[in-house]
Amino acid sequence: MNKKVNTLLFILGATFFNVIIAVISFILLLILYASFIVPRLSGGAQSWAFSLIFLSSIAISILVYRIALKFLLARINVEKYFDPLFVRRNIKKPPSRPE
Predict the structure, then answer these.
(1) Residue 94, Cβ neighbours under 10 Å: how many?
(2) From CA 72, how far away is CA 74, in angstroms rounded?
(3) What is the pLDDT of residues 33-91, one digit of tens each?
(4) DSSP 15-61
(5) N or C, fewer C-beta in 10 Å, the chain?
(6) Cα separation of 51 and 57, whole Å?
(7) How confident is the model at residue 19 (pLDDT cuts 50, 70, 90)?
């Protein structure tokens, strides 16, 4: 496989990993919420909890993703296996005008 295929597979795998972590954290937070917090809250406060759980699961997935990515990038030589996504191109500047 070449570098571009490796890059594509890495992006797809990392996206799948991030989504799976978000779903798992959402389910775990929902179970914790249903078992410990629901009996103690009033009706109005319960409606806000679902939004808070959803946002918390996204935040947890981003945090876990960043930690896993730092660990993986420390172990893998990125330049050897992956192609850069964005290549800096030399843009010619217009000639400067005399003042």
Answers:
(1) 5
(2) 5
(3) 888 776 676 666 667 788 889 999 999 999 999 999 999 889 988 878 787 777 777 66
(4) HHHHHHHHHHHHHHHHHHIIIIIGGGS-HHHHHHHHHHHHHHHHHHH
(5) C
(6) 10
(7) very high
Cβ–Cβ contacts within 10 Å for residue 57, how many?
Answer: 20
Question: Do the Cβ atoms of 81 and 2 come closer than 8 Å?
Answer: no
Q: How many CB atoms lie within 10 A of CB 98?
A: 4
Contact status, residue 25 vs residue 53, Cβ threshold 8 Å:
no
| Cα–Cα distance for residue pair 31/52, rounded to 1 Å | 14
Instruction: Enter the pTM of the model.
Output: 0.74
pLDDT given for residue 45 in this prediction: 67
Tokens of 15: 């996206």
Q: What share of the chain is helix, strand, coil (3-state, %, to 5)?
A: 75, 0, 25
**Can you give the length of the chain in residues?**
99
35, two tokens: 């078992």
